[in-house]
Inverse folding.
């Protein structure tokens, strides 16, 4: 587990820098933690409406190091979705930015720290939470669904340590938050750097904003991480022509990067003496299960690499028999201490123990080459990745059928095609599902039934 004692070992290190040049040491952040310990009951449940800010970071660190369980949610979550989750999980407290606290119509404000407020929900009882439960995350892309991933203290620490090992993270690293803290990939960057005493560069600015690049250059960021869509943006922004002498590492996960773009960034990093790591993971495995060592980025283009330290892959066929031969497709199975305890669908499930027992059936189809490097070739079930979010096609169809009975969905990574039979409602459906899934509207292409567009024809 990540403890206050571990972080206090770096008490004089700078833990975070904000775009206005404010610096916060590990000691200062841990001092703010005392406010939580005095106001929040141990083993209570707290909803954290997150953003990439110092208040959000202080809340997260304070909770997981104080025997309190946070559910990390997007601060811009749809209000109806938020109250549905409140009904399902009955949180004792909500940690929310002061600019957004107006959406919380219940409770009493207890403390304010760095622009965030802690609100006590008076009528919700304290429930039985499993002793090992550390953190709750939505299944990727299902912000509107009550289904959550239950992560233990061991899950969080083991994955952070494995990532820190293969990326050689030390206290001199300065990652910039190009991904949201409520997203498992983004949160894993926070965790793996905190345990090494590194400095987090906190910004809510996107890759498309000038403020992001000014902050990145002025703060001398050493690493940048993104999902496939991030790298498409970087290409359009002519990132490969930028002068970023302090940037030494790029990491990519959240879905398959197109092979040609993968190769282009791999060659760029080799020429510039930077490291490019392609990785693979799921929220159900805390964050990451494999990585491709940067020196293999070109010769193993398209591979998700090898299991993370202390992790193990295997492949099984349709009869659940282990596949030992190379270049044979099977379902990918992962084993490791970072495999989550299981799912939750309501407050009662938070008392459950570990039902996965360190083994995750990923639902992905893969093959292994003769050098034991793995390649994802498809998905067994109907899931796709939209801008790094794992989205169920069946769940999306069920959401749309609430407002229009005839619909069908197909898709590939970064593009879902929705077929309906009413031309007048195309714009409405596109806006509706974008808001429901909290994914940018450009990921959806709504068409009339019986048309046959290309997945990329938007």
């Amino acid at each position: 587990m990540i403890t206050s004692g571990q972080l206090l070992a770096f008490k004089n290190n700078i833990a975070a820098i904000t775009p206005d040049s404010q610096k916060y040491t590990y000691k200062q952040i841990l001092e703010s933690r005392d406010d939580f310990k005095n106001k929040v009951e141990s083993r209570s449940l707290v909803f954290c409406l997150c953003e990439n800010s110092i208040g959000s970071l202080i809340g997260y660190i304070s909770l997981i190091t104080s025997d309190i369980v946070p559910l990390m949610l997007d601060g811009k979550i749809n209000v109806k979705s938020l109250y549905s989750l409140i009904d399902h999980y009955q949180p004792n407290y909500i940690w929310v930015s002061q600019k957004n606290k107006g959406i919380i119509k219940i409770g009493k404000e207890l403390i304010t720290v760095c622009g965030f407020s802690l609100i006590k929900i008076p009528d919700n009882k304290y429930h039985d939470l499993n002793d090992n439960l550390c953190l709750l995350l939505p299944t990727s892309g299902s912000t509107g669904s009550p289904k959550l991933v239950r992560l233990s203290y061991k899950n969080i620490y083991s994955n952070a340590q494995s990532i820190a090992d293969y990326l050689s993270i030390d206290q001199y690293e300065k990652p910039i938050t190009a991904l949201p803290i409520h997203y498992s990939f983004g949160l894993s960057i926070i965790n793996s750097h905190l345990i090494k005493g590194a400095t987090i560069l906190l910004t809510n600015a996107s890759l498309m904003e000038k403020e992001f690049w000014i902050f990145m250059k002025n703060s001398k960021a050493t690493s940048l991480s993104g999902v496939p869509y991030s790298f498409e943006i970087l290409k359009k922004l002519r990132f490969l022509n930028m002068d970023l002498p302090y940037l030494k590492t790029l990491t990519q996960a959240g879905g398959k990067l197109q092979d040609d773009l993968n190769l282009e960034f791999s060659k760029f990093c080799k020429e510039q003496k930077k490291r490019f790591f392609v990785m693979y993971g799921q929220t159900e495995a805390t964050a990451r299960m494999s990585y491709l060592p940067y020196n293999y980025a070109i010769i193993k283009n398209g591979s998700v690499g090898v299991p993370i330290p202390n992790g193990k892959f295997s492949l099984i066929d349709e009869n659940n028999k282990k596949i030992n031969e190379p270049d044979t497709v099977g379902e990918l199975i992962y084993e490791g201490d970072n495999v989550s305890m299981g799912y939750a669908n309501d407050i009662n499930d938070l008392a459950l123990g570990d039902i996965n027992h360190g083994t995750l059936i990923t639902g992905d189809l893969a093959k292994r080459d003769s050098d034991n490097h793995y390649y994802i070739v498809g998905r067994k079930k109907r899931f796709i990745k939209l801008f790094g979010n794992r989205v169920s096609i069946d769940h999306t169809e069920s959401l749309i059928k609430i407002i229009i009975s005839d619909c069908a969905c197909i898709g590939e990574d970064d593009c879902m095609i929705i077929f309906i039979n009413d031309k007048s409602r195309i714009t409405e459906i596109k806006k509706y599902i974008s808001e429901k899934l909290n994914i940018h509207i450009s990921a959806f292409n709504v068409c009339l039934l019986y048309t046959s567009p290309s997945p990329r024809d938007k």
Notes: The chain has a mean pLDDT of 92.
